[in-house]
């Protein structure tokens, strides 16, 4: 049934059937496309403001239909909806997950000025800042004052006669000073997201932990956009893959590349179960999208992001050169080098493969890179660093790449202070970047199962002769062994999650946190170390899972 206009900027429509579809219509040189993902903002009536900061999909482009006028028909997605705690508990108990949610969704007709595009990085940043301004306690005391001193922008002012229950909404065009201040006061809040894992079987389930540390199930469907309809299918299970948060340039997006769809021993009988595919998770929409395949099939790979480039490292031992596309000469050229690194450009979503050839003094590095899998890696000081293992010599070898000096290729990290020979670092370790240091934790063999160490570069990336020089320091041991666990940084604090004690066989579902003063004031005395976090638990004990801190529009 159609409801009357709530205010000049919005018209609500509540239906259970999808609105008629029609081709996109150009709007001031721009087009809203059928099935395009958008964010709603700036609705000011008491009824309409409830839908602000909610994601939606376009079901009726502008101008399609007499009743709609110049408004866009959208259908709300579930990602930004409040979820009842009892309903969440019931879904966890019966195992249905996020995709068991009701398919009945509210539909609206909204002016184009009240929509932001999920495909535009600047619009993604705007909606997150609008969420921050509207909910940040630090800004509550100044936002009303600043907003009253500035003229209101389109779609952000309450119409004359609006009731006292009207909610204030804020956007950069209506409150530029407020948004400028917000950038210095706070940042969009990120919440831990846990993906898949293994404990006697592969658990293809994903969870987001809310402000009260309660887990909410995430989507397990792969969405394909194209033509007048959206197609979805079950997301293939995936563990042992490379994972990267795409950062502030593309907030809320995370890459998952390579890996396998079952236990690696089972995949040996079906090489296709080792992946060269890649998918993208959008935490603002709670949707998965398929990307182009990598040039190389990879298992046990790692990833690091610098700017618009994601470097997927290692795991190439499962690649079969017969999978290569293109002419035989090109495939042979790649096969002759070390296929250690594939690079994704997030501006074009295109993959390239680095052709790496190492010899002479780099032989140890070449051996370590050749069959590298399950190792800690990350981006520190605008450089990529990976902690590998030379099995021939039985020692750790660190590799570094400097995008500012690509002609140098991959170099073996040198530690002038000899710290690389004194720290204890395990193989198959997990890693995360904290305050300019790459922390690696746990790993094999058992004496390293609780070990933690941190690496940093000691020279600037612009130093041609010593950009690959670094230093290690030992950090306090974990409370528990966590082989196959995950590290995640949440609001500047480092957490270790899940994992398994391979000596006792105990899988863990808890979190522990490292004292942040080890990074802010490492020389000050005190009982620095790890402490268990009692108020948060993973839904089940796992290892081989991934954990990222991502923003969300869910309430």
The biggest beta sheet reads: 6 strands, antiparallel
Low-confidence segments, given as residue ranges, are: 1-29, 82-103, 153-167, 327-336
Number-wise, the strands total 36
| Structural class by secondary-structure content | alpha+beta
Strand content: 25-35%
Provide the helix percentage: 10-25%
Strand order of the largest sheet: 1-7-6-5-4-8
**What is the average per-residue confidence, as pLDDT, rounded to a whole number?**
83
Rg computed from alpha carbons, rounded to a whole number of angstroms: 25 Å
The DSSP helix count reads: 8
Tell me which oligomeric state these chains represent. single chain
Shape: globular
| Termini separation | 27 Å
Please give a structural write-up.
This protein has 8 helices and 36 strands. The strands form 9 sheets. A 6-stranded antiparallel beta sheet has the order 1-7-6-5-4-8, with helices on one face. A 6-stranded mixed beta sheet has the order 13-12-17-16-15-14, with no helix packed on it. Strands 11-10-9-36 form a 4-stranded antiparallel beta sheet. By secondary structure, it is of the alpha+beta class. It starts with 9 loop residues before the first strand and ends with a strand. Helix content is 13%, strand content 31%.
